[in-house]
Design brief:
Blueprint: H1 2-36, H2 38-45, H3 49-71, H4 74-87, H5 91-119, H6 130-156, H7 161-188, H8 193-221, H9 223-231, H10 241-259, H11 261-280, H12 285-326, H13 330-357, H14 359-367, H15 372-401, H16 405-430, H17 434-457, H18 462-497, H19 503-527, H20 530-535, H21 538-546
C-alpha cells in the first residue's frame, strides 16, 4: 500500500513537472517575445517612444480588466471541473461542461467587447488618446474567451502542450503585426503616433485568431482520443444543464476576482498616480507620463517574464489539486502544496534576484539610456516585488484548486484594502516607487493570510520546505552577488574599448552576467541535491553533464 501511494505521489510530481515545463516554456517564450519587440518598436517610434509606451499601458490595463471579466474565470473553472469529473471516469460530463462554458464565453465576450467599445469615452481617464486604443482592443475580447476556454478544456485533461504552443503562436502573430504596422506608420508613411499605438493594440485580435486556430488544429488531431474516453465513461453520474451552468458560474466568479488581482492593483495605480503626483509635484504631463511608463509599463513588461513562471505553475496546479481533493487524499494535498512551494521558490527567487542584478544593462538594452539610472532603479525594485506578486498568483490558484474560493477572495480583499490605504502616502513621498511599494505590502499581507490558511487546513511537509527555503535563499543570494560582480567587471572591460552604455554592449553584459549567475546557482542546487526535490531523477543527468559529484 505504501509503495502504491509513493508511486501515485511520484506520478503526480512527474505530471506537475511535465505540465509546468510546457506551460513555463510557452509563458517564457511568449513573455520574451512580448518584451523583446520593444527594442525595434521603440526605435521606430523615436521621440514618441515613452509617450507611445505609456498610452499602450494605459489602454492595456483597462483592456486587461475587461478581458478578465469577459473570460469570467471560466477556463480555470472548466479545467478544475473537467479534471474532477475525469477523475471519476465521467468524461462525457466534461464535454457537456465545455459546451455550456462555450455558450457563456461567447456571451460574455460579446457583452464585454461592446461595453469596452462604446464605453471607452467614459473610462479614458481624461485622455482622449486612450479612446481609439480601447476601440482597437475591444475586437480581441470577442475571441479570447473562447480561446481561453478551449485551453482550459485541454488543461482539465492535464494536456499542457496545446495551451503552451497556442500561447506562443498567439504572441508571435501579435508581435509580427505590431512591428509591421509600427514600421509602416512611423517610418514609411510618417503617420500619427496614436494611430501606430492603436494598430499595435489591435494586434491582440490578430494574435487571438492565430491562437484559436492552433487549438482547433490540436483538437482535430486528438478528436479520436477524446471520443474514445467519452465512449468508455462510467456514465453513473447525471448532471442537469442548469446544474452545469451553476457549477461553472460558482467556480468562475472567484477566478475572475483573483485572476484580475494584479490587474486591479495596476488599475489603482493608473487612476491615482497622476492625481497624487500633481498634488505632490509641479511635473508636466509629459514627465508624469514618462514616470508612469517606467514603473507601470517598462519594468512591468520585464518582470512579467519572471511572473509568467508562476502563472505556468498555477495553471498546472489547479486541476491536479482538484483531483487529489476529489479522491479525499489529504496527505497527497500536503505533498503537492509543498512541491508547488518548493518549485516556486526554486525558480522565482533566483529569477527575481537575477533580474535585479542585471537591471542596469537590461534596462539600457530594452529602453535606451534616457533616464537610465532612474529606470534601472525602478526595475531593480520591481524585480524584488515580483516575488510576492508571483507568490499570489500561485497560492491563490492553490486555494481555488482546493475549493477555498471564498477565503481566497476575502484574503485578496484585505490586501487590496491595505493597498488603498497606503497608496496616497507611498506615492506622495516616494513618487514612481510608491505604487510598487504599496503593491508589495498589500500582496504580501494577502500571501501571508493564504499560506496560514493552507497550513491550518491541509498542512505542508514543513521540514523539507524549511530546508529547501534556506538552501534556495542562500544560493540565490550568492548567485546575485556573482551576477552583480560579473556585470560590473564586464562593464569595466567594455568601457576600456568603447562605451558600455550602448545596446550591443548592454546585451553582451546581460548575457555574460546571466551565464555566470545561472551556472553558480545550478551548481550549488545540483551539488546540495536541492534540485532533486524539484527535478527528480533528471538531476542526475544534469550532474553528469556538468561533472558534479
Amino acid at each position: 500500500m505504501i509503495d502504491n501511494n509513493q508511486s501515485h505521489s511520484d506520478n503526480s510530481r512527474e505530471q506537475m513537472l511535465s505540465g509546468s515545463a510546457w506551460m513555463t516554456a510557452g509563458s517564457i517564450l511568449s513573455r520574451f517575445l512580448g518584451a523583446v519587440y520593444i527594442i525595434p518598436w521603440g526605435i521606430w517610434f523615436g521621440d514618441y517612444f515613452f509617450r507611445g509606451n505609456a498610452l499602450y499601458g494605459l489602454g492595456y490595463n483597462i483592456y486587461s480588466f475587461f478581458l478578465t471579466a469577459a473570460i469570467a474565470g471560466i477556463p480555470s473553472a472548466i479545467a478544475k471541473q473537467v479534471a474532477h469529473y475525469n477523475a471519476l471516469n465521467e468524461y462525457s460530463i466534461g464535454v457537456q461542461l465545455y459546451k455550456r462554458g462555450l455558450v457563456l464565453a461567447i456571451g460574455t465576450g460579446v457583452i464585454c467587447a461592446a461595453a469596452l467599445y462604446f464605453g471607452a469615452p467614459l473610462i479614458d481617464g481624461g485622455n482622449a488618446n486612450v479612446v481609439p486604443v480601447l476601440h482597437s482592443l475591444a475586437w480581441a475580447i470577442l475571441i479570447i474567451p473562447t480561446m481561453s476556454l478551449t485551453r482550459g478544456y485541454f488543461q482539465g485533461y492535464q494536456q499542457m502542450a496545446p495551451s503552451a504552443i497556442s500561447q506562443f503562436v498567439e504572441q508571435l502573430a501579435r508581435v509580427a503585426y505590431m512591428l509591421i504596422t509600427a514600421f509602416l506608420i512611423m517610418r514609411v508613411f510618417n503617420g500619427n503616433w496614436v494611430t501606430a499605438v492603436s494598430q499595435s493594440t489591435f494586434a491582440a485580435f490578430i494574435g487571438a485568431v492565430a491562437g484559436l486556430l492552433t487549438l482547433v488544429w490540436y483538437y482535430a488531431s486528438r478528436r479520436d482520443t477524446f471520443r474514445s474516453l467519452v465512449l468508455n465513461s462510467s456514465n453513473k453520474v447525471h448532471v442537469e444543464p442548469r446544474t452545469l451552468y451553476h457549477e461553472i458560474i460558482t467556480q468562475a466568479v472567484p477566478f475572475i476576482i483573483l485572476g484580475a488581482g494584479i490587474t486591479i492593483f495596476m488599475l489603482i495605480d493608473q487612476f491615482t498616480f497622476f492625481k497624487i503626483m500633481r498634488m505632490a509635484t509641479n511635473y508636466s504631463n509629459d514627465m508624469l507620463s514618462d514616470l508612469y511608463a517606467m514603473f507601470a509599463v517598462n519594468s512591468n513588461k520585464l518582470i512579467m517574464i519572471t511572473i509568467s513562471l508562476s502563472s505556468a505553475l498555477a495553471i498546472t496546479a489547479v486541476p491536479m489539486l482538484s483531483v487529489a481533493l476529489t479522491n479525499g487524499d489529504k496527505k497527497e494535498i500536503a505533498k503537492q502544496n509543498s512541491s508547488i512551494m518548493v518549485l516556486f521558490m526554486f525558480v522565482m527567487i533566483p529569477a527575481a534576484l537575477g533580474m535585479a542584478a542585471i537591471a542596469g544593462p537590461l534596462n539600457r538594452l530594452f529602453y535606451g539610456v534616457n533616464e537610465e539610472a532612474l529606470g534601472a532603479n525602478i526595475l531593480t525594485f520591481s524585480s524584488m516585488i515580483s516575488i510576492p506578486m508571483g507568490m499570489f498568483v500561485v497560492i491563490s490558484a492553490v486555494m481555488q484548486g482546493l475549493s477555498q474560493n471564498r477565503r481566497a477572495v476575502k484574503f485578496f480583499a484585505v490586501g487590496t484594502l491595505i493597498k488603498f490605504i497606503i497608496q496616497w502616502p507611498c506615492v506622495y513621498y516616494l513618487g514612481a516607487f510608491g505604487p510598487l511599494l504599496s503593491t508589495a505590502i498589500g500582496l504580501t499581507i494577502s500571501d501571508w493570510l493564504i499560506i496560514r490558511s493552507l497550513n491550518r487546513q491541509f498542512g505542508f511537509e514543513r521540514k523539507n520546505l524549511n530546508w529547501a527555503f534556506r538552501k534556495i535563499g542562500l544560493y540565490s543570494l550568492f548567485m546575485y552577488v556573482v551576477t552583480l560582480a560579473a556585470v560590473y567587471g564586464v562593464n569595466y572591460l567594455v568601457g576600456l574599448v568603447s562605451t558600455p552604455f550602448g545596446r550591443i554592449a548592454s546585451l553582451v553584459v546581460t548575457v555574460i552576467g546571466v551565464a555566470f549567475g545561472g551556472y553558480v546557482y545550478a551548481y550549488f542546487c545540483l551539488k546540495s541535491r536541492v534540485a532533486d526535490m524539484v527535478l527528480g531523477p533528471r538531476s542526475a543527468r544534469f550532474r553528469q553533464l556538468l561533472r558534479i559529484k
